[in-house]
Amino acid sequence: MGRRSIIGTSLAVTAALALSACGGGGSGSGDSNTVRVTLVNHVWTENIRAALPEFEQATGLKVDVTQLGEDQLSDQYNVKLNAGSSDIDVMMYRPLQEGRLFAKNRYLADLTERAKGSGEFDLADFQQAPVGATTYEDKLVGVPIITEQQVLYYRKDLLEKSGFSAPPATLDELKTQAAKIEADNSGVAGFVARTGKAAAVTQFSSFLYSFGGDFVDGSGKSAVNSDAAKQAYEYYGGLLRDHGPNNVSTDMSWSEAMAIFTQGQAAFYPEANSLYKNATDPAKSKVSENVGFAPFPAGPAGSKPYNIPSWGLAVNESSGNKDNAWKFIEWAAGKEQTLAQQKAGVPGARTSVWENPEGISTYPKDMADAITVSLANGVGHDRPLVERVAQAREIVGQPIVDAITGRDAAAAADTAHEAFQKFLDDEAR
Fold first, then answer.
1. pLDDT > 80? residue 154
2. Which residues contact 111 (CB under 8 A, 6 or more apart)?
3. According to the model, what pLDDT value does residue 345 have?
4. Which pLDDT belongs to residue 346?
5. Domain 149-306+385-428: which topology?
6. For the purposes of burial, counting CB atoms within 10 Å of the CB of 264, is it exposed (0-12), middle (13-18) or buried (19 or more)?
7. β-pair type (90-93, 307-315)
8. Which superfamily, per CATH, for 34-148+308-377?
9. Summary mean pLDDT of the chain
10. Cβ-Cβ contacts under 8 Å for 303 (sequence gap 6 or more)
11. What tens digit of pLDDT does each residue of 406-423 get?
């Protein structure tokens, strides 16, 4: 979805096309002692750049960093990877957005043996769901470095006013509490969420999984018209239709939905944990002191929120410097750096950083507790796992819009199923 979280966007970075990690210019000469790394503008990147002298001193290697905005990054990869260029060694990429395409096109080197053979790296320490998203045809082609999980944001003061002692543990309770709070508070919606047909897909996914569905079945066929999917579409759309903001638009992404919540106009808001500072920062939120976080409510299949890697590191298959490229990844995604990133507010993919009190010390306690549930039950994708992700999201997101606007969600799911199956058949050719 090209998620641009507040945690995930460095406000201090300018749109420079090439920046040297150490203040010098990059040689681009193919020197085996120079690792050429392409990274996105992100807090993770700023943190790792600050730590690079430690890596360079320990290894004797020089790291040349090219740092780009997301759109520029995609443009560069489209040009250089398609051309088989060898002047990128390590690349920062989005496993769920372009990972499948890159892997199918053999742009990503197989890291399986390197990762398994490094005891210090400890591949087993990585959460299963994010690693699944960086695996293609049973080969590890990337290492997850930044994760996101879905949690439920809520207003503690409104729950208390309406007599609720705890946030909803189930989707049935969510509907009940949303209705009661809305009835008790004029001008406050019981629920708000993303509504745009593409933007909503990622957050809708947790509802889909918790109803027992998925975008495709075990054989890779469309499953968006399963009974579980139809129930999920109707639930999500119906909750917004019946208890969402008045005259709710059907083109909201996270920024619009978050604004409604932080302006005090909604009681519940399911969203990525990476955005939580928008709700807790008094400079951005009128309700900062009353925001709570809860695990994603359980549906008929339990609580199954997504637990996904928003960014990962990979080695360019065309690189002639794979050994040193792996040394960089081994360090940058190692336990020490992952803990440092986590303490700086960048959620990591390693189990150890969530089990370490230091790793959760900077998070609100209820947020850390909610994330723990996501780590245990999370699903490793929040959109269809296909090559043409944007087109797929448009297709499977249409029933969300139809349900919100009061159309027949089941019929919309049947229509989407036909279009999505055709899409899958076309992509398989």
1. yes
2. 139, 140, 141, 142, 143, 314, 315, 326, 329
3. 86
4. 92
5. D-Maltodextrin-Binding Protein; domain 2 (3.40.190)
6. middle
7. antiparallel
8. Periplasmic binding protein-like II (3.40.190.10)
9. 92
10. 210, 295, 296, 297, 373, 377
11. 999 999 999 999 999 999
